[in-house]
Amino acid sequence: MEQDLQGKIGRFTLPEIFQLIANGRKTGTLGIQKDDDIVMVYFKTGKIVYGYGPRQTLHLGQLLREKGKITSEQLAEAVGAQSRTSSSKRLGQILIEKAFINRTDLETVVRRQVEELVYSLLNWETGSFKFYENQYPTDEEITVDISVENAILEGMRRMDEMNRIKEIIPDLNNILVMSPASPERRTDISLQSDEWNLLALVNGRRTIAEIADLAKVPRMEAVRKLGALKLAGLVRVIGKPEPESDRLTAMVDKVAGLLEEYLTRKTKTTAPERTVMQNIRDFGVPANKETDEI
Fold this sequence. Notes:
The protein is elongated and about 90 Å long. It has helices spanning 14-23, 60-66, 72-84, 91-97, 103-121, 148-157, 162-168, 193-201, 208-214, 219-231, 244-269, 276-282, and strands at 6-8, 28-34, 37-44, 47-52, 128-133, 176-178, 235-237. Helix 5 (103-121) packs across helix 6, helix 6 (148-157) packs antiparallel against helix 10 and helix 7 (162-168) packs across helix 10. The protein starts with 5 loop residues before the first strand and ends in a 12-residue tail after the last helix. The strands form 2 sheets. The protein has a 5-stranded antiparallel β-sheet. It has a two-stranded antiparallel sheet with strand order 6-7. The chain contains 12 helices and 7 strands. It is an alpha+beta fold.
């Protein structure tokens, strides 16, 4: 990604875009626009560290009040102080200065605020995006550390629309395989027990339908979870299984090829002075010294 990554949502899904940034361990800001909504998500070495949008579902003050960390009166006082100050202080900073909350309280709600914003983005099917490498529009005092895989998995757990899942996995007759892990990137993935059980069924030979049938959860629930694992980059599709006749033909051709390779190699390596007994001795079989017999 030497050039800025940009395009339309639809050609790429947002989880795919997040995965590109994560796999490249990129640092910068992903700007996403849909109609009048603009959301900015900060990344540092492939991890989500901050995000904000003008229409965030859960605002900082609301979250703190819901968690019982501040009262409505304290929130109103802090908001009033923010509107009167000329230094454009953040609301969280004002709340800390007034001793209404501590830094740990602030970090906890900022994390939830960013997570909720990212989860809501997974429902966006249209819009445009651009990644600004090594750029941040503002400096944030409080940042978090969220893995892209966990954000995608949790967002998909909350999504019940099967039409969306069918877009991710349109054909249940495709084979699933485990995606190789990048040696340059450590991932911190939190899977539920059902998701671990599904991953254990992915062996590179079973189709999505076969895995769903073997799963210990209802079939459509298994398909939904497999879709989440695919979006998170933990599994990938490699196509449909070969027909039995094609597989048998391929096996016969492989055996014939191996036999031809063996005969060719044997012809090239057999020298006139080399006896059968010498070949046998090479395998460690003792021979009679006087008669040269086994």
